[in-house]
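Sat 14:20. Reprocessing the chain from the morning session after the first attempt stalled halfway. Input below, unchanged.
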Amino acid sequence: MKTDEERKGKVTSFLEEDYDGNLDVLHYLEVLRDKVGFEELSKKVERPLTGLKIAPYYGCLLLRPAAEMQMDNPDDPSIFEELIKALGAEVVDFPMKSECCGAFQVVNSETMATRCSKEIIASASSRGADVIVTACPLCQFNIEDRQKEIGEAETGFKTLPVLYFTELMALALGCGDESISSKKHYIDPRPVLTERGLVG
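Finished this time. C-alpha cells:
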C-alpha cells in the first residue's frame, strides 16, 4: 500500500483522514517469529508440550491473499510448525491444513460448514493428531462446534479438541492448568492433555 496510490486513496477515504501507508500490520505469529524469535521463545518454555501431537490448521485466510498477507509461503507454510516445535510438541502435518473450514457460510449453510470441518478433522485424525491448533477464532468455532453434529450422525466418530495457539503458549510458558479451561471449549481438551501429563 505504501506504493499503491489508488489503494491508499481508498483507505484514506474509508478512514476519513489522511493515511500515509507507513503502518506495518503484523499478526501475533509474525511478532513471535520476527520480533521475539522462536528460538528465544523456546528458552522461556517452563512446561514443554512433550508427547503432544499437534496438527497446525492455517485455514484459508491466515495466508491469503498471499500478496497482501506476505506472512509465509501459502503453498508450504512453516510459521505454525516452528511455533509448535518451540513449545516442545510434535508437529502433525496433514493435507487439509490450509483448506477452508466453511468460514461465514456456517450462517447460511451449516451443512457445508459441517462437511468442511469433517474433512479437516478426518485428515488430522488419520495422521495421529491429539489436537488441532488454529489462529482464527471462527475456524476454532466451526471445527469444534460442528463435531457435535458429526457425532450425532456417525457412529464411532472420535472427537478432536481444537485449541487456539495462545492457549498452548500459556500452558507451555507456565501459566498453569487454568490456562486450558473446559468451559471455553465444546470439545474438552483436558483429557488428552492429562493423558500426556501436561495438566493435572
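Residues 47-195 form a domain with the Rossmann fold fold (CATH 3.40.50.11810).
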